[in-house]
Amino acid sequence: GTKLREVFDKINNLLSGKPVLTAGQTVSVTQHPQGLDFVYYKLAEKFVSQGEAEVASHRESAFAIAVVVSGIWEMYPRVGDLFLAHLHKKCPYSVPFYPAMKEGTSKEEYERMLGYQFQDSKIEEQDHFLKRMSGLIRLYAAVIQLQWPYGSRQGMHPHGLHNGWRWLAQMLNMEPLVDVTATLLFGFLEVCGNALMKQYQVQFWKMIVFIREDYIPRIEAITSAGQRGSLMRFKQFLEESLQKKEIPLAKGYLQPSFWRS
């Protein structure tokens, strides 16, 4: 907790125009007329890249990163706008939006629009792609439910849980994609299902039953035998949740005791 406060304070000091010591030199956003705009942009970009690198590899880190994002967003709304812009560009499914193949668009160009990365014109492995997309959705799912506990305003969340409810409803209004849809729904519900359950109660469970009864068969219809890994994990998660009438807090959730550490 104390470590996370140090990180937050350093970012806050930088954005508020105070000189900050980093890599052996003192920097300040006031050193250049566009300094603050540049730092807003790069910071939001960095937050998003932590989703696809850090959270993708260590799922439980989503909450520690998200609470800092949420706190900075509350104090500097511009950073929040840019965070969403970078997130949507890296992961169109976070809108949610499935880009359509337009006439005249090359295959590589289209795959980049879908969020795939390329190295030496070679597309990344599907597993790696799904891991990154899951990391980004998990970070977003953590951001919408957490508030920085030391904020002076402690008012409304800058981008609260209702955005998650809307995202979920919009996802279920779209035709599923092989691998991608099951992976993202599972990651999202594992991270913020508990918060949505408490907030929306009966409506939430209706949504979960709809996913099991109506939406899962639609995913199954487009999924071949060799691509069922993410779908099976998601199905198991839904079955257990409905059986216990409970979605547990995700691993890594920041309990009050964390802030005393």
From TrEMBL:
Keywords: Coiled coil, Cytoplasm, mRNA transport, Nuclear pore complex, Nucleus, Protein transport, Translocation, Transport
Localisation per UniProt entry: Cytoplasm; Nucleus, Nuclear pore complex
Function: Required for the export of mRNAs containing poly(A) tails from the nucleus into the cytoplasm. May be involved in the terminal step of the mRNA transport through the nuclear pore complex (NPC).
Gene3D superfamilies (UniProt xref): GLE1-like (1.25.40.510)
GO biological process: poly(A)+ mRNA export from nucleus; protein transport
Protein name from the UniProt record: mRNA export factor GLE1
GO MF entry, a single one: translation initiation factor binding
Main location group: cytoplasm
Pfam families membership: GLE1
Annotated family: Belongs to the GLE1 family.
Stored InterPro entries: GLE1, GLE1-like_sf
Transmembrane segments: none
Cellular component annotations (GO), alphabetically ordered: cytoplasm; nuclear pore cytoplasmic filaments
